[in-house]
Amino acid sequence: MHIELTEMLRCPEAHREEFLVLSTGEMSGRMVRAGVVGCPVCQKEYEIVNGIVNFSGGGMRDAGRGPALTHSASPIPHPDSQTLQALLDLSGPGGYVVLLGFAARHAVGLAALMGGIHFLGINPPPDVEELPVLSLLVCEKKIPLRDAIARGVVVGSESSGAAWLAESRRVLLPGRRLVIENETARPDGVTQLATGQGLFVGEKR
Ligand SMILES: [Zn+2]
Fold first, then answer.
1. What average pLDDT does the segment 69-96 reach?
2. How far is the centre of ligand 1, averaged over its atoms, from the C-alpha of 19 (Å)?
3. What pairing do the DSSP bridges indicate for beta strands 199-204 and 134-138?
4. All domains of the chain in start order, with CATH
């Protein structure tokens, strides 16, 4: 996890938002490879192992590491990175883009097109690894981020149920784009801009 991401995190427990406290162990440049994130409200502690922050707890190192692959992945991610960048309507550096579930696979392609943006992979598939431009977070309950911090959100089809879509909308900045790899998705509070080719594109109201 990138060290500056600490102030964007929130505890997944149902209580007021409060900044979490980071205790760093091993660092690699600006990335925290090992450490603990603590919540000052409920006192829960979340371990960072191999750079991945595990908000699911339970002490199992691989708990909640995304759904198991049931079939081999397509070698070319769909949609391609240029299409996705255009749909997200992102220009200019800075800020965060959230990639939920299997959408974390888009991080490398998008980062090559868009410098200066940090990507946040939530519940990534097992073949996605942390990068200087990609922090990985695992949480079974919700997206462990504060409200309205993301310049864009891409949701993998396996994560396009109502609860995760509500979470995706919550972390998105108003007026910014949500791309869902499921064209039948209709998230609340999101204005539909386009559907087709397996995708829903909307803007947060
Ligand atoms: Zn807490």
1. 78
2. 10
3. unpaired
4. 3-54 (no CATH), 81-204 (3.40.50.150)
CA of 43 to the centre of ligand 1 (A): 6
Q: Supply the DSSP symbol for 145.
A: B
Instruction: Count CB atoms within 10 A of the CB of residue 72.
Output: 6
- What is the CA(194)–ligand 1 centre distance, in A? 37
What's at 199, amino acid-wise? L
CA 127 to centroid of ligand 1, rounded, Å = 29
Distance from the alpha carbon of residue 120 to the mean position of ligand 1, in angstroms: 20
Q: What are phi and psi of 5, to 5 degrees?
A: -70, -20
Q: What is the per-residue pLDDT across 116-150, written as a single tens digit (0 to 9) for each? A: 999 999 999 999 999 999 999 999 999 999 999 99
Per-residue pLDDT for 179 more than 90?
yes
Q: Which residue has the tokens 């000052």?
A: 40
Three-state secondary structure call for residue 157 = helix
Decide: 48 and 62 in contact? Cβ < 8 Å: no
Distance (angstroms) between ligand 1 centre and the Cα of 38 equals 8
Cα–ligand 1 centroid distance for 42 (angstroms): 4
Alpha-carbon distance of 145 to 119, in angstroms, equals: 13
**Per the structure block, which two tokens stand in for 163?**
């609860």
Spacing, Cα 139 to ligand 1 middle (Å): 13
Q: What's the predicted TM-score (pTM) here?
A: 0.91
pLDDT one-digit tens code per residue, 46-63: 999 999 999 996 544 444
Strand pairing class (52-54; 45-49): antiparallel
